Structure formats: C-alpha cells, structure tokens
Amino acid sequence: MGESPENTCRLAKAYTSLRDAVRQTKRPRSLALSTYPTLPETSLERREQSLPAAAESKTQTFLYLAYGSNLCNETFRGKRGIKPLSQINVQVPELRLTFDLPGIAYSEPCFANTARRDPENDVPSSTEKEGTPASNDYHKDRWHKGLIGVVYEVTATDYAHIIATEGGGASYQDILVDCHPFEISDPTRSVPVHPATKPFKAHTLFAPAVPPGSQPPKEGGRIQRPDTSYAQASARYLKLITDGAAECRLPYEYQDYLNNLRPYTITSNKQQMGQFIFLTLWLPFIVLVFSLGAQFADEHGRTPPWLRILSESIFRACWRTYDGFFKPTFGDGERTVPAEDEDGQHQQPPTQDNLPRYLESGASTNEKMNPSAV
C-alpha cells in the first residue's frame, strides 16, 4: 500500500529537520583572526623545564601539542573554552599526520591522528618526484617532513578538559614527544627535512594503529577500519584544520599540503539517502555517549571504564551495520567515488580546488542540498 499524504508530509518534515542539522554542523566559517588575542611565545625557560621528567612534574602547567582541529581558535579557545597561556609552532620528526580514526560514515568518516615515523625512510615516492601522484590517493601522503603543529601551554584544569573533549581516554594515549621550534617564525621559509633547533618535550594524544590480528590495548585502544588509509575526512573537518593552520601562521609549505587534501563528498542520491537513514539510526546513541562523557569525566578528564566500553560497543555496532548493510545498499560512506554524468560517464572525483566547479556541473545532488560541506 502507498504512503498516506499525512505520513509523507511528516517524513518530509523529519528529513528536512535532520538535513538542516547536518548542514548547520558543516557550515563554512570565515577566519576570525581578530576575535582571539595573540598569545605570547612559550618561553625558553618553560620549554627547558619539560626536558627532565622531575622538573616537568613540578610545573603548574602542561605543554600540549595540537595538530588537528585544536589548531582552530574557534574550536580550541571558543567551543572547548581552553585558555592557553602561550604557544609556539613546532616540527615533530618522530610523528606524521594521519586520518585513520573512524568517525561517522557518510558524515565524518575519519578524524586526524598521528603515527610513528622513520625520518630516514619517509621520502617522496618516484611518482611524487615526477609530479604525477597516484590518482587513487587524496594527497594525504604527500608530506614527508614530519608532523607540524602548535604547542600550547595550558593549565592542569584545561589539560584535563582537553582529555575529556577528546574521548576521555577511550581512544588516545597521552605521550611525550620531542618538539623542535622553528628557527625563524616566518611562514614563508621552507620547512627543513631535519630540524636543527634544540627540542623540548610536549604532551600529545596518540592512538596507534593495531597490527592485524592483535587486540587493542586496554588503555588508549580504539576501533580500527580494515584499511586505515582508506577513509577521507569531511570538508568541514579539513576546514577546521586549514583555518587553524592559517590562524597559527604555520609554514605556507605545510598549509599548501593541507589545502590540497581531498575531502569526502557524497556523489549520488543513494548515498544521500543512506546518510539520512544512518544518522537517524545512530546519531542519538552517539550524542548520548558524548553527553555521558561530559557528565562522568574525572578531574583528569578521563571517563570511567564502563563508559569507555559502552562507547566502543556503540561505535563498533555503528560500523558493523555500515559494512553489512549500508555500504552494499547505499554506497561508499568513507571515500569519494566518481559520479556519473547524464551520459553515464564517470566524472573525476572532486578536490578542494575543483569542488565548486564539480557542484556547478550537477554531479553531486547531495552537495546541492547541503552546500555547506564545500
């Protein structure tokens, strides 16, 4: 039997409300450089205090390395309410930027993370040297000079709040890494392959990939996709990182790399419908987990074991339904696939540079309904 007009109307209203909610979370932002005061550079004395473990334990502040959305003032100092005392841009040769933390299919497929790096073996491939990168990547592996980020000096209370807002210890481990300040605070200068400045120690949040067949650690474990390099981050999330890199005046060379990352883009009506049903089903549970995390985090920002288990169970179930039903039925919710034009020909997947032209061509019905993802 067909749907009644009343049911059809209610369904349309529900869809419109959910679509507007998703649109709101992805609305583009303009840089608000004047909204937040410029911070002083972290002093040499405070950086030197980070080197001996005994001295670090006696300090009243933490040095925290940010590399993802926390680069953005609107997120770090605005939404999360962190009040850093100072900051300094750094290069971290022992780490590299990755996007392998699973998020929410069709909306936020993955989030930023880091992985251990071997500086001697991390060199451009032959295709990159020739200027003809492989077409199946989204430019995430084009950077070969270690992690670039910002070290903030924050209070112990603010550091606990950072831990709480990053999952309360459910995914990340707190590690200390060597951070090299840039010799000259000039974003036009090229980033050195091997930094020569004296390093200092800073805390950062690290979720190592689990080797195939191994179980994640009891503390700092996380769910993991079969191919950790497959998913693409959303345009909304990448914009937070690129805006933050610009606000912090990270090297232009690194900003170019970030701006060339290709976002996940819905390219079919089936994916659009899959997004609607998937978010309708799982968003209430995800919101519940984050609400409980804010309520039960301790003074160090860590959530109780039962809540970490609940969170992991929900996200595992979320991705199992995606793999078992949504992806075969509605299409890929992690990586952009070519759209078919009116002649049935595949179009080139969009990049951040050609996405406006891609949308104008009529390739993405979803993005026309949700232009804030651009």
TrEMBL record:
Polar residues compositional bias, start-end: 362-374
Spans through the membrane: 276-297
Entries under InterPro entries matching the protein: G-Glutamylcylcotransferase
Enzyme Commission (EC) number: 4.3.2.9
Residues of the active site: 166 (proton acceptor)
GO molecular function: gamma-glutamylcyclotransferase activity
Disordered as annotated region, ranges: 112-139, 333-374
Record bears the keyword DNA-binding: no
Name of the protein in question: gamma-glutamylcyclotransferase
Source organism phylogeny: Eukaryota, Fungi, Dikarya, Ascomycota, Pezizomycotina
Enzyme class: lyase
Source species, domain of life: Eukaryota
UniProt entry keywords in alphabetical sequence: Lyase, Membrane, Transmembrane, Transmembrane helix
Residues where substrate binds: 64-69, 237
